[in-house]
Amino acid sequence: MASVELRFSKYEGLGNDFIVVERDAVGRAIDTGEALRLCDRHRGIGADGVLETGLEGGRPFMRVTNADGSRPEMCGNGLRCVAAHLVSRGLVGEAFDVDTDAGPHRCIVNGHVIEVEMRAPGLAPADVPVRAEAPLIGAEWEFDGERLRVTAVSMGNPHVVTFDSVSDARRRELGPRMEKDPRFSKGANIGFAKLTGDDAIDLFVWERGAGWTEACGTGACAAAVAAVETGRVPRGPWVSVRLPGGVLEILVGDPGTRVRMRGPARHVFDGTVTL
Fold first, then answer.
1. Max CA separation in the chain (angstroms)
2. What are the catalytic residues?
3. Structure pTM?
4. Distance CA 241, CA 200 (A)
5. Which of 7, 11, 145, 149 might form a disulfide with 81, Cβ 3.0–4.6 angstroms?
6. What confidence category does residue 3 fall into, taking pLDDT thresholds of 50, 70 and 90?
7. Does residue 2 register a pLDDT over 70?
8. Which residues contact 225 (CB under 8 A, 6 or more apart)?
């Protein structure tokens, strides 16, 4: 395959960083090997993932490839970055839908703050998916010899959230092991949450394909859903979810309605690279 000079933009959302590429800039999809090289922090640009975007049939889209080459269905922080990029390029107005592998998501851009209508959360085992006879909502399961109370949530991608007290050292062991638990047929993003107030949560997330990241948008949504479903916070008000990279605000409404997320996205720099 002939080499191509690829134009790209670097964005970050609360430290979760991405290489944004317009499909028209290369004329084809970025393949797995290229994504791996681009995301390499020593020999490439360095990022948690590559976000391909542009317009298909006049509709904005986003395709995500993680730093390990895997393809997640959805990325909340990445979607905010794509939304900011599309607005900066004049391809859309301030309110628009973006098609993703998890379906369309409404985005509203107000300066550096982007609000996204995420998916309605899925709690049924088939939605996550997880091998279980009933929804896991504060359910006690054993992982790596330790019993944890967990809530399994689909935000278009699979999440497992626990509010149990877990030490930093133990959390770092459990995250990657829980991700690959065979009961989750597609793996899972693992959230370790702590309620810090009536409407505030601290959260660390081990992401499939990226490891420990500064922030995870879908993970923040899943943690807020888990807090509501287990009675830790009320349904309706905005909840502040503090991740290592900063705070996202999440609103969990009536059952079956879309979760709303708002937070920043920042353009870092533009460049070209040879594929």
1. 57
2. 75, 216
3. 0.93
4. 6
5. 11
6. confident
7. no
8. 121, 123, 151, 153, 155, 161, 252, 259
